[in-house]
Specification:
Number of helices: 5
Shape: elongated
CATH architecture of the largest domain: 3-Layer(aba) Sandwich
Distance between the termini: 23 Å
CATH class of the largest domain: Alpha Beta
Radius of gyration: 19 Å
Organism: Escherichia coli
Family: Belongs to the LysR transcriptional regulatory family.
GO molecular function, one term: sequence-specific DNA binding
Order of helices and strands: HEEEHEEEEEHEHEEH
Strand content: 15-25%
Protein name: LysR family transcriptional regulator
């Protein structure tokens, strides 16, 4: 789930200005694209989602998640106070093209992290569509907090179950072990590498 690849544009933009001889092709999708068969130099995924034969370089911090619903939705449904109560709710899910299914929600239940498949009428393929559907009262959405923070502050969305939504491991740039990292690629990796909290 890439939330906002342009978060890294500052680093990329500075890099490109410093190295006009280097070209970058960027392709964005929510699938688990095989970077080897698709002939990409590298990919970006959440930590822990790479194959074991990949080298992974952390490029971002952990990602706080949020479960949100609109005031309209909660006027018709009770506010959940436990993970088990989610069964009584409609979910607005993110469609993952590689698997052809919905993204599972990572939650804390009984003191441990679990992945829950939520049911709902809507299966959408962009975060913006999910936010709009949540604001319109179609159900609960599970999204990166930074994507819904403004809507929460504007009281268009209400955050629930925040104690049960663990942070996702940050994004990592990954590439095959057998790929020779040329000087341009090595420079780019060094520029994107996460240096900790700023």
């Amino acid at each position: 789930m890439i939330t906002d690849v342009w978060k890294y544009r500052g680093k990329s933009s500075t890099f490109l200005k410093s190295h006009p001889e280097i070209d970058i092709q960027l392709t964005i999708d929510y699938g688990l694209t095989d970077v080897v068969s698709e002939r990409f130099d590298a990919g970006v995924r959440l930590g822990g989602e790479m194959d074991k034969d990949m080298i992974a370089i952390r490029i971002g911090p952990d990602i706080p998640m949020a479960i949100v619903g609109s005031p309209d939705y909660f006027s018709r449904r009770s506010v959940p106070t436990s993970v088990s109560q989610l069964i009584d709710h409609q979910a607005i899910n993110l469609y993952l093209p590689t698997s052809g299914t919905a993204n599972r929600w990572r939650l804390i239940r009984g003191g441990r992290e679990v992945r829950v498949r939520m049911e709902g009428q809507l299966l959408l393929n962009t975060i913006d569509l999910i936010i709009d559907a949540a604001i319109d009262g179609h159900g609960l959405a599970y999204l990166p907090y930074d994507q819904v923070e403004r809507a929460i502050k504007e009281k268009k969305l209400i955050r629930v179950l925040d104690k049960f939504t663990p942070d996702l491991p940050g994004y990592h740039l990954y590439y095959p072990h057998r790929r020779h990292a040329g000087s341009a690629f090595s420079l780019f990796i060094d520029r994107l590498k996460y240096k900790g909290a700023v």
